Amino acid sequence: GQNIDQPTEMTATEGAIVQINCTYQTSGFNGLFWYQQHAGEAPTFLSYNVLDGLEEKGRFSSFLSRSKGYSYLLLKELQMKDSASYLCAVMDSNYQLIWGAGTKLIIKP
Amino acid sequence: DGGITQSPKYLFRKEGQNVTLSCEQNLNHDAMYWYRQDPGQGLRLIYYSQIVNDFQKGDIAEGYSVSREKKESFPLTVTSAQKNPTAFYLCASSPGTSGSDEQFFGPGTRLTVL
């Protein structure tokens, strides 16, 4: 079967750095997406990785290792508005997105 | 402004009634999707459409129906056959279905069946 694993919840302090991990087992791989979702709202796109390595975009970076079936989202200089759920999704061989359950990130002052 | 709209934001229905959730996009996207989101679970695909007048079942299509008569519109009907319809429903669209095509989401409809 296909599976995406993420921690259920993480807590971090304002101004700090946090790393949210995602491991996956899917039938084929056509890229990995990270989305941010505030409670009760729509997910919004953060990043896309299809090749191994680190993609940096402002305070957010995303890393991919295809051989390990592993990705992480790195958030720097945390702000209170970063409190949200972070969803990892993998596009499989049929170009369908397989979604993880999301990681709820709580930021404390 | 381009985007995806879903209405209504909150919807209450009695058990046994069919209900239709609307989804409209003005992004000129070919592909559209319906997902269901339940607490503690990832998004699950109900139906998707890659082109007008064509759609395919996702992982949990039972008890749901869709139509794609116009490129801009992809309404979802939750029928009385759906055993547990109370959930948060998200509509999304993408330019196409290639690997890098990110999906853009509407604000969602929270359906409660009483």
- What's the tally of helices of chain A? 0
How much strand of chain A?
A: over 45%
Structural class of chain B: mainly beta
Taking Cα atoms only, what radius of gyration of chain B do you get, to the nearest Å? Answer: 13 Å
Mean pLDDT across the residues of chain A is 96
Would you tell me the overall average pLDDT of chain B? 93
Q: Which value, in Å, is the CA radius of gyration of chain A?
A: 13 Å
Give the DSSP E fraction of chain B (strand runs of 2 or more residues): over 45%
How many beta-strand segments of chain A? 11
Major sheet size, sense and barrel closure of chain A: 6 strands, mixed
Q: Could you describe the largest sheet of chain B, including whether it forms a barrel?
A: 7 strands, mixed
Taken in chain order, the helices and strands of chain A follow as EEEEEEEEEEE
**Range of helix content of chain A:** under 10%
Uncertain parts of chain B: none
Descriptive overview:
The complex is a heterodimer of chains A (109) and B (114). By secondary structure, chain A is mainly beta. Chain A has no helices and eleven strands. In chain A, strands 2, 4, 5, 9, 10 and 11 form a six-stranded mixed sheet that branches. In chain A, β4 and β5 form a beta hairpin. Chain A is globular and about 40 Å long. The mean pLDDT of chain A is 96. Chain B has 114 residues and is an all-beta fold. Helix content of chain B is 0%, strand content 48%. Chain B has no helices and eleven strands. In chain B, the strands form two sheets. In chain B, strands 2, 4, 5, 6, 9, 10 and 11 form a seven-stranded mixed sheet that branches. In chain B, a hairpin with a 6-residue loop joins β4 and β5. Chain B starts with a strand and ends with a strand. The chains are: A mainly beta (109), B mainly beta (114). At the A-B interface, β5, β9 and β10 of A face β5 and β10 of B.
Summarize the structure.
The complex is a heterodimer of chains A (109) and B (114). Chain A is mainly β and 109 residues long.
